[in-house]
Amino acid sequence: MSPHRRLLLRLAALGVITVIVQIAAVSQITVLGVSADLTPLVVMAVGLLAGSLPGAVMGFAMGLFVDMALVQTLGVTSLLLMAVGYWSGRFRELRDPSHGLIPLAAGVAASAVTTIGFSVFQFLLGIDAPVSFLLVRQMLAVTLLGGLLSLPVYRLVLRIVGSSLRDDPRRRSRRRAPTGGLSPLSSSSRSRVRTSRP
Amino acid sequence: MYDKKVRRRRAVLGLLVGVSLILLTGYFSESSGGPLHSVQRGVLQGLSPIQEGASRALKPVRDLAGWFGDTFHAKSERDRLRKDNAALRREVVGAKAARAENDQLSRIVALDRTGGLGQLEPKTGRVIGRSPTLWYATIEVNRGSDDGVRADQPVVSGDGLVGKVTDVASSTSVVTLITDHTSGVSAKILDRAGDPGVVLPSVGDPGDLLVQTLPPHSRVAVGDQVVTAGTRNGHLESLFPPNIPIGTVSRVSPSELALSQQVHLRPSADLRHLDFVQILTRRPEGLRAQTP
């Protein structure tokens, strides 16, 4: 099986399992008065690891699946998760971040975008609900919870799809890690090696 | 090559956005029996067994998370309940005190009605001080000369006679209880003969009173009620209106009765736990002298 197809299969399985686990378990666990949402975190992780196009496709597919499974208005979650996947992928393509806490910041942003975006869509679609302090507090709690879960989710996604990626971020980070190339000690040792050769 | 990649990415993105918007618009505008709704229901139907299985399989995970949540919730609940408990305890204490006061006041009102004390212009006062000695000799009441209180006026509670006023200030007065060694009350025993006597304190036992100067062949028995005589007994003019309960005969010793002409009496009024008393500020009409 080609690596491309293997990645596709793994991403599909990851998406389906994530949605089912989200609906069957995670949505029923309440922390700080709200439930965590794993779907934007998984999409964010796929975007950061695989790029903008896989991220956008993953977001669209997972969003569609969520809307189907939860009998919601089709297209809303797809649009939001697609934006999350695409922008996290673009962030990786443009900045190529290597800091270990990038998934945390991206997770907070993904959770915030999804929560706020979903609420905005609900208001636009005519859901008659007042903008209350409780709603704002719940949005903050979901965002905080997303931030807390983003690192473990990122690690899990990396473990599942990392070996199928063309550009493994672990190898990339190792490559980018400082090896002492700019250190005068290393340069002197290199020059010593060079000079010792005939 | 790069341009081709960018174009492809943009095309896919545009396609996805377009599909999303079409789905959104179509779903929102169609009726519940429309094709998108039907597809959704079909997916839901196919997905429900998987969801059910996953829900069962993941129940331990939910329970574990729920256990943590319940533990935190239980701690906050415990703290809240402790606060509630403390507040309720305070309320209960307040309610008990209010009920005790209400009981005392009700008994005072009942005594006023049945004993005809209402015409003696009773002034209800709260006990604001007690003598710290073991003998319960005096109490302090928040009624004074401004309220018409004068020295030697009788003081009763809902259960019976308490004592008399001995010192009066403008807003407070001191009541000497019937257990004080200076006290003496002309009384009669509600036995068959209605034997008269004088109620005196039993020195050394503030919970006990003595009825002395009983007739030699008195047939007083334990349980007989003793009330104020309201009469002149010898050279003592009674300050107290008649028929106010003083106590119940608690002990009758034949030898003591024969030698000292006395029996023991338990006070009707709980002199140790008085909260309200009434000072009878008007002397009863027709109180007349009577010799035994």
Global shape of chain A: globular
The number of helical runs of chain B is 4
What portion of residues of chain A belong to β-strands? under 5%
**Class inferred from helices and paired strands of chain B:** alpha+beta
What is the averaged pLDDT score of chain B? 82
The low-confidence parts of chain A are 186-198
**How are strands sequenced across the largest beta sheet of chain B?**
1-2-5-4-3-14
Oligomer classification: heterodimer
Task: Find the count of extended strands of chain B (DSSP E, 2+ residues).
Answer: 14
Give an account of the 3D structure.
The complex is a heterodimer of chains A (198) and B (292). Chain A has 198 residues and is an all-alpha fold. Chain A is 73% helix and 0% strand. Chain A contains eight helices and no strands. Chain A has helices at residues 3-24, 39-50, 52-69, 76-95, 102-124, 133-161, 169-176, 184-196. In chain A, α2 (39-50) packs antiparallel against α3 (52-69). Chain A is globular. Chain A starts with a helix and ends with a helix. Chain B is of the alpha+beta class. Chain B is 39% helix and 24% strand. In chain B, strands 1-2-5-4-3-14 form a six-stranded antiparallel beta barrel. In chain B, strands 6-7-8-13-12-9 form a six-stranded antiparallel barrel. In chain B, strands 10-11 form a two-stranded antiparallel sheet. In chain B, β7 and β8 (209-212) form a beta hairpin. At the A-B interface, α1, α3 and α4 of A face α1, α2 and α3 of B.
Keywords:
heterodimer; A: 198 residues; mainly alpha; 73% helix; globular; B: 292 residues; alpha+beta; six-stranded antiparallel β-barrel; 4 helices; 14 strands; rod-shaped
Please provide a brief summary of the model.
Chain A contains eight helices and no strands. Chain A is an all-alpha fold and 198 residues long. The radius of gyration of chain A is 21 Å and the shape is globular.
